Amino acid sequence: MPMKTLDESSVVVAADHTTSAEVDGESVILDLDGGVYYGLNSSGSRIWKKLQEKKTIEELIDEITKEYDVGRSECEDDILSLVQDLRENNLINIVDAQKIK
Fold first, then answer.
1. pLDDT of the chain along its 101 residues, tens only?
2. pLDDT at position 98, please?
3. What pLDDT score was predicted for residue 4?
4. What angle do CA 68, 72, 78 make, to 5 degrees?
5. Which residues, including other chains, have CB under 8 Å from residue 67's CB and lie 6 or more apart?
6. How far apart (Å, rounded) are the C-alpha atoms in residues 75 and 63?
């Protein structure tokens, strides 16, 4: 089955089989199923923290643009890229929006 395309309405959350630790403002994520470590810089770490609860990509963009001096378009590109990478590494789940409420 093909992967659903990510867009601003996509709802994402950290996968249950991950754990993470912050070291000097950066995060190290461990995939407990695969035993693989994944590192994030400080801005990626901030996004990872936000993904501990279900959020839409749009909510992430809104929150990050308020916290950082970054344009919305650049922020959207960066978040979509990071989320796609986290997805490809099986570190997040895409959640059906109807199951949130």
1. 456 788 889 999 999 999 999 989 899 999 999 988 999 999 999 999 999 999 999 999 999 999 999 999 999 999 999 999 999 999 999 987 655 44
2. 56
3. 72
4. 75
5. 46
6. 10
Tokens 């994402």 — which residue?
Answer: 12
Interatomic CA distance for residues 94 and 31, integer angstroms: 16
Q: What distance in Å separates the CA atoms of residue 5 and residue 30, rounded to the nearest whole number? A: 25
CA distances from 39 to 19, 22, 27, 36, 98 (A): 12, 10, 6, 10, 31
Q: CA dihedral in degrees (57, 73, 84, 46; nearest 10)?
A: -70
d(CA 27, CA 70): 21
End-to-end alpha carbon distance in the chain = 26
Q: What is the pLDDT of residue 95?
A: 87
Burial class of residue 56 in the structure, from the number of CB atoms within 10 Å of its CB (0-12 exposed, 13-18 middle, 19+ buried): middle
